[in-house]
Write a structure and sequence with these properties.
Blueprint (H helix, E strand, L loop, with lengths): L10 H8 L10 H56 L2 H10 L10 E2 L5 E2 L3 E3 L5 E3 L37
Length: about 170
Amino acid sequence: MSGPAKQLRGRAARLAQLMPSGAGSAARTPFVLLVVLLLGGGLISLLLLNSALNEGSFRLSDLKKQTTDLTDEEQALQRDVDNASAPYALERRARGLGMVPGGSPLFLDPAGTVRGVTGEATASGRQSPMGGAEETSEPTGSPADDAPRGTPPGTSGEPVPTTPGR
């Protein structure tokens, strides 16, 4: 037997031609193909991730602009509400509805007498006397009699008597 110690014949010989001869020369094609597929898949994944982040960035920019617009609108509406609830605007609208200022207040003494000027309210803001007494001169004996005219009873600085248990 001169040559290889063992000669393969037939089918085994054909299979031996497909297999690399020796341990140093392994089949590199599947490994190279695997590396190329992994790199390509990674690049495509990065491209999809980058486009998704850009889409989110555009959405965030649109939402910030919408928030700014809505904040401006809210401030304008609040300014309108403040202007409509200002005292001069309320007075103008009340006069448009036919309302007049109430004038000075009246107070009832504990004895049932009326303190203050009674009258009908007019458009000028003053009360016109209707024949009612301006102030009663009947002494009631309460500390509110010493209070200045137009102040409610119990505000003259004197303590107001209270019932026990309250």
